[in-house]
Amino acid sequence: MSRLKLSIYTSILIVFLATNSVIATDRVKTLVIVSNTDVPIKKLSIGDIRKLYLGYPIKLDGQEIHPIINRSDPLLYVVFLQKIVFLSARSYQRRMKSEMFRSGKREIPEIDDKNELQKHIKEIKNTISFMWLKTVQNKTLDNTRKIWSGTLSQ
Questions:
Q1: Using CB atoms within 10 A of its CB, is residue 53 exposed (0-12), middle (13-18) or buried (19+)?
Q2: Does 137 reside within a domain?
Q3: For each of the chain's 154 residues, which pLDDT tens digit applies?
Q4: How many folded domains does the chain comprise?
Q5: Cα 141 from Cα 154, distance rounded (Å)
Q6: DSSP string, 99-115
Q7: Domain of 134?
Q8: CB 3.0–4.6 Å: which of 7, 12, 17, 91 could bond 87 by disulfide?
Q9: What pLDDT is recorded for position 1?
Q10: How many CA atoms lie within 13 A of 116 on its CB side?
Q11: Could you tell me the pTM of the whole model?
């Protein structure tokens, strides 16, 4: 009888652990920078990416890089700002408006459609943006660089 109980408890534990690992892998997200093939994004540091999205000009191989904000997924936008720019969405927007009025910097364009964003990146030279790796794998952009990976609590 005790062997039967042990077998049942072991089976329950295995099912529980297997279920939790499947759920956990769904929460793992990988954030990547994407661009057309003109931009050597492997040369961009995380600090450079942060500066770009704070409105500072960055040049690679003599070419100025132009960032685009991906607003197609609210979670993606928030994670990018928190993990790469180190600001909340509200603080980021306030800071960008302040910089625009104070120094005359142009606003960084925002695109809220994934397909339009990918088309824009492919067609316009020296542009970069950010996406989930899963999204890029389903599309046609080849020039990617992982900038963050982690689990998100739901």
A1: buried
A2: yes
A3: 577 766 666 666 566 665 554 445 568 999 999 998 888 999 999 999 999 999 999 999 999 999 999 999 999 999 999 999 999 999 999 999 998 889 888 899 999 999 999 999 999 999 999 999 998 876 668 789 999 999 987 6
A4: 1
A5: 29
A6: HHHHH-PPPPPEE--HH
A7: 28-151
A8: 91
A9: 58
A10: 10
A11: 0.80
* 59, part of any domain: yes
1 in a domain, yes or no? no
Kindly report the CATH number assigned to the domain that includes residue 142: 3.40.190.10
Closest CA to 117 of 64, 70, 49: 70
Length of the chain: 154
Rounded CA separation 69/88 (Å): 15
Specify the residue for token string 């927007």.
93
| In-domain check, residue 124 | yes
